[in-house]
Design a protein that fits this description.
- The protein contains three helices and no strands.
- The protein is an all-alpha fold.
- The N and C termini lie far apart (about 185 Å).
Length: about 190
């Protein structure tokens, strides 16, 4: 405190008006006291404000470094994601091609199986139709033969009845009775 008191006393004693010899340079005592004041203020600022300024600058540096690290990590993650998406797109294209190929193979197989099944059904239907036609032909032939036989019997009966006179008819009946009677005794 002695130093400040002396400075105050010296400043109070001088009390006169100040005239500098040069307009550019201050007078020696003013230069001396200004320099001393500057050094004192600078020392106080360095002592008290320096650590706070240093701490603020370090915090700013740390924050910027952290942001740079975060940005670098984000960029690396984005690049990894982009490469993974690109690989997935290639995989999707390959998978799509594989699925299309499988679908074509399955369609060809199903088509071939369907054609084979249809061909087998056609052969079976043709065989059944041939059998039905043969059976129908046999039935028609049998019915035709039966009908012709009936018509023949009817025609023969009509012819026989129309040509038989009563005396021939009586002889035939007696011959039949005799024949039946002789078979019955034996």
């Amino acid at each position: 405190m002695n130093v400040f008191a002396r400075i105050a006393i010296i400043a109070a004693e001088d009390g006169g008006e100040f005239h500098a010899e040069s307009t550019w340079w201050p007078e020696g005592s003013e230069l001396l006291w200004g320099t001393i004041s500057f050094v004192i203020i600078l020392a106080v600022m360095i002592k008290f404000a320096g650590p706070a300024i240093k701490k603020g600058m370090q915090a700013r540096t740390d924050r910027i470094a952290k942001e740079i690290d975060t940005a670098a990590r984000s960029r690396a993650d984005a690049e990894a994601l982009a490469s993974r998406i690109t690989a997935d797109l290639r995989d999707v294209d390959a998978e799509r091609a594989r699925l299309l190929q499988e679908a074509e193979q399955t369609a060809s197989r199903v088509r071939a199986e369907g054609v084979a099944r249809n061909d087998a059904e056609v052969v079976e239907l043709e065989a059944r139709a041939d059998a039905d036609l043969a059976a129908l032909g046999g039935r028609v032939n049998q019915e035709l033969q039966d009908q012709v036989a009936r018509w023949s019997a009817e025609a023969a009966e009509r012819i026989v009845v129309s040509r038989l006179d009563p005396s021939v008819q009586a002889d035939l009946v007696e011959a039949f009775i005799a024949h039946v009677g002789s078979n019955g005794r034996a």
